[in-house]
Design brief:
- The complex is a heterodimer.
- By secondary structure, chain A is an alpha+beta fold.
- Chain A has 15 helices and six strands.
- In chain A, strands 1, 2, 3, 4, 5 and 6 form a six-stranded antiparallel sheet that branches.
- The longest helix of chain A has 43 residues.
- By secondary structure, chain B is mostly helical.
- Chain B is globular and about 75 Å long.
- The chains are: A alpha+beta, B mainly alpha.
- Chains A and B meet through helix 1, helix 2, helix 5, helix 6 and helix 7 of A and helix 1, helix 3, helix 4, helix 5 and helix 8 of B.
Amino acid sequence: MSTEAVSIPLAEAGRQRSRRTRRVWVGASRLGLTLFTASLAMIFLLPLGYMLLTSVKDNSQIIALNAPLWPASPQSYTAADGSIYALYDVPLPDAGVRQLALEKPGRIVSTFIDPANGQEIQWRGNWRGLSPVWSGIQPKFDNFTTVLDTLNFPMLLRNTLVVAILGTIGAVSSAVVVAYGFARFRIPGKNGLFLLMIMTIILPFQVLLIPQYIGFRAIGWTGTWLPLIVPHFFANAYNVFLLRQYFLTLPRELDQAAMVDGASPLQILRSVIIPQAWPAIVAVALFHFFFAWNDFFAPLVYLSGRPDLATMTVGLQAFSATYSGSGTGYLTQAAALMALVVPVVIFFLAQRAFMRGVVISGVEK
Amino acid sequence: MAIVDDRLSVYVPPAKPGSLARRETMWGLVFLSPWLIGLVVFTALPILASLALSFTNFNILHPESLRFVGLDNYARMWNELVSNRAVGQSLGVTFRFALMSVPLGIGLALGLALLLHHKLLAGKAIFRTLFFMPVLIPLVASTIVWQGFLNGSTGWLAQILRSLGLPAPDWFADPAWALPGLVLVGIWGIGNMMLIFLAGLQAVPTELYEAVKVDGGGPWARFRNVTLPMISPVLFYNILIAIIAVAQYFTQAYTLDPTGNGRPGGSTFFFNLNLYKEGWTYNNIGYASALAWLMMLIVVLAAIALFRTSARWVFYAGAER
C-alpha cells in the first residue's frame, strides 16, 4: 500500500519531466527550423536587397572598393582657400588611421591636409590603395526622378495599364462564359472539346504568333494595342479550366431553383453563378493582369517602331539596353524597381485570392 | 466524393426530351462560342498557316516574291543542326538549360514545399508569400536585378564570395557561367511550382503517414512510399509546365543581350532568339515558321513521352478521376 502511494507521484513526476523535455525539444526544433527557413528566405531575396540599395546609390560608390553597403557619399574637406578635397582613411606610422584630405595625389608620395589644423602631411604609399571616408546613410532618391524622365515612366505606366485592364476585362468575361458552358451544359462531344482545350496549353506560342502577326499586319493592327487586347476576348485555356473547376464545386440547387422560376441561362450565370464564384474570378483577373504586365514578346513585335505605345517591359528592356553598362547600372536597378512596384503591391494586397487560384489550376487535374 | 449525388435530390420538371436537350446544347454552344471562335481563328488556322508558310520563302517585306520551296527550309534547318550553327547551337543551349533548370527547379520547389509544409515551422503564410513573391516580378526586371547582383566586380555575390576568399565567376560575362546564371534567375520563379506542390502535400491523407509509422518506417520511407506517390500527379503537371516554359524561353535571354546574339559568345543563344532574329530581323517568315514547327514537334514529342511514362510513375488515388 505505502509503496504504491509513493510510487505513483514519482512516476507522475517522471512523466511530467519527460513531457517537459519533449516540449523543450519541440520548441527548439521549431525555433531552429523557423530560423533556417528565415535565413533561406533572406538568401532567396538577397538580389532584391541589392536592387533596393543600388537604386539609391551613385556610380562612384558602386565601383569604389570597400564602400559601405548602405547608400552613402564620399566625404570631403573644404580648405581655408575654398578648394574641396576628398577625405581618406590614411594609416600613419605613428598616429594610427587618420581622416585626411587628399591635396596632391601621387603614386609614391601624396600630400594630405589634416582637417584638424590645416597642416600638410606627406604620406608615402599609393593613394589609390586608400579607402575614402563615407558618410552615413544618404539615399539618392533623385535616381528615381532621372529614371522617371529618361524612361518616360508615366507614359509606360499608362500604356501598360490600358493594355492590362482592357485585356483583363476580355480574359475574365470570356473565360467566365466558356467555363459556364463547360460546367453546366450537356453538349455532345463536350469532353472531347474540353480535352482539346487542355491540349492547346502545350502549344508553344511561337507557332501561333507568326501567322497571327501576318494577319494583324494585313488588317493594319500592327503598331496598335489591338493585337495585345483583342485575342484575350476569346478565352484562355488556363482561365477556363480554373473557372470550370470552381463552377463544378458550386451546388446545382440554386441554378435549378432559378431555372424553375423561369430564369434564362444568362440570368442564372449573372445572378447565381458569378456571385458565388468571386474568389476564382478575382484569381483569373489577377492572372491576366500579371500576365499582361509581364508580357514581352508580343508587345516587342507588335509595337516595334512605336515607342510612344510601348508597355513597361518593352520600355524597361530598351532602357536597360542603353544604361546597363558600367557607369549607369544603378539607374537600371532604379528602373527595375519602378517596374516591379505595381505588380508586387497588388500581389501583397490580393495574395490570398491569387495563390488559391494557382492551386486550383495546378492540382485539380 | 459525396455519397449522395445532390443533383438527384432536386426536382427537375420533365419535358419533351428532344427539344429540351436541343435547347440546352444550343445554349451551351453559345457559351462556348468565344472559345470555339478563338480556337479556329487564333489557334487552328495559325497552326495550319505556319505549317504552310514553312514550305515557302515568305518574306514579310516582299510578299510578291512568295514561292513554294518544298522542304528547303527544313533542309537548311537540318544543315545548321548537323554543322552546329544557328539551329544546332540554339537547340544545344536550350537543351542544356532545360537539363539544368528543370530538375533543379522541380527539386528546389519540392524541397521548399516540404519545408513549408513541416508541422514545426512557424509563420508558414509569411514564408509562402516571401518565396512566391518573385514570381510576380516582370521577367525583364528580374533579369536586370540578377544581372547587377551577379556582376563579377560590383555584384553582391562576387563580393560575398571574395570576402570568403573564394573565386567569384563573372557570370554574365563568362560563356561558361552565363547559362548557370540564367538558371539562378529561373529559380526566382519556382514559387508557382512550390504552391502546387504544397497543395498536393496538404491533400495527402494523414492516415497513410500513420500507417508507415506503425510499420516502423522512418522519414525517408514516409517520403518514398507515401508522399512521392501521392503527389506524383502534381509532380507530373509541374514537369510538363516546366518543359513548356523552356520551349518558350525568350525574355530573359533577350534582356541579357539586346542584340539577340546570346552574349557572351553565343552561350545564351536560345532557340527563340534565333527564331526572333530570322522572323523579325531578317523577315524570313517562312523559315521562322519552320523553326516554330520544329519547336512545337519537340514539345509535343516530349509531352507524349511524359504521358507514356506517366502510367508507370503517376499514381491517381481517386479512381473516379
